[in-house]
Specification:
This protein has 267 residues and is an alpha/beta fold. The chain has 6 helices and 12 strands.
């Protein structure tokens, strides 16, 4: 009796030790905690590695191995190539990865004589700028070249200086000829090779194109259509007749062209 009473007294005593944990369960808990610790360590190592690699990569792109060493211009040379370099404003020694190719394109394309531009990085250290220039088809009365779209892009020299003059037109450089005069440019842009250099000037009168040749012959071209047929008819009459005797030629109907002689000349 005494023993049983003592046992009950021990179990109910506050602070008595709890039942022992199974050793296998304890080992399992320890292994789980260790696994969690290893996962946290791997994540930390991976994060540190990413940060180190990113920092190394960033630093490498800022080394002299990957900076701008050359700016290569194609499509133009001489002074115009120098203009492209100045307009592009690509700083030699700057990081290639920082180059804003779109901004360079916009700056170069703003040059009035540039039709379009392509800007490329060529690793490790070259920036390539390819330029297509506007093709002049006429000059205005101030001597500024006009392309087929009507854009004025400044003075011309050399062979281009022999371009036809668009009478009554003066367009500020970098601006466009009014659209209602574009038919004249369409005719001049369609000049065949044998007629290049033959046309002194051109004008639009009541919707019809009129040309003046270098020897003073007036040509009534009519609407800006059937260019090839009209130029063929014009060339045929010029070949067949004594040009010194011709005052004007009408090719508005190219299948039935006509000419008018100067006063006092024979047929």
């Amino acid at each position: 009796m005494t023993t049983g009473t003592l046992s009950r007294s021990n179990r109910s005593r506050p602070g008595a030790p709890s039942a022992l944990i199974d050793p296998r369960l304890r080992a399992r808990r320890i292994e789980v905690e260790r696994g969690r610790g290893r996962k946290r360590l791997r994540r930390l190592v991976a994060l540190v590695a990413v940060v180190v690699l990113a920092a190394a990569g960033y630093g490498f792109t800022r080394t002299a191995l990957l900076d701008v060493d050359h700016v290569r211009i194609t499509g133009v040379d001489g002074e115009r190539a120098a203009e492209v370099v100045r307009a592009g404003a690509v700083a030699r020694g700057s990081a290639m990865v920082d180059l804003d190719t779109a901004a360079v394109d916009r700056r170069v394309s703003a040059l009035p004589w540039v039709l379009n531009t392509t800007v490329e990085r060529r690793w490790p250290g070259t920036v390539a700028i390819a330029v297509t220039t506007r093709r002049p088809v006429a000059v205005d009365v101030a001597g500024s070249a006009l392309d087929a779209s009507g854009r004025s892009f400044g003075p011309v020299d050399g062979a281009a200086a022999r371009l036809p003059v668009l009478r009554g037109a003066a367009v500020e450089v970098g601006h466009d000829l009014p659209a209602d005069r574009h038919p004249v440019l369409a005719v001049l842009a369609g000049l065949p090779a044998e007629m290049v250099g033959e046309v002194e000037s051109a004008v639009l009168v009541d919707g019809d194109v009129e040309l003046e040749l270098i020897d003073g012959i007036d040509v009534r071209f009519g609407p800006a259509e059937r260019h090839r047929a009209k130029f063929r008819a014009l060339a045929a009459l010029l070949d067949q007749a004594d040009r010194a005797t011709i005052r004007s030629i009408d090719v508005r109907v190219p299948t039935s062209p006509s000419l008018t002689r100067r006063t006092g000349t024979g047929a």
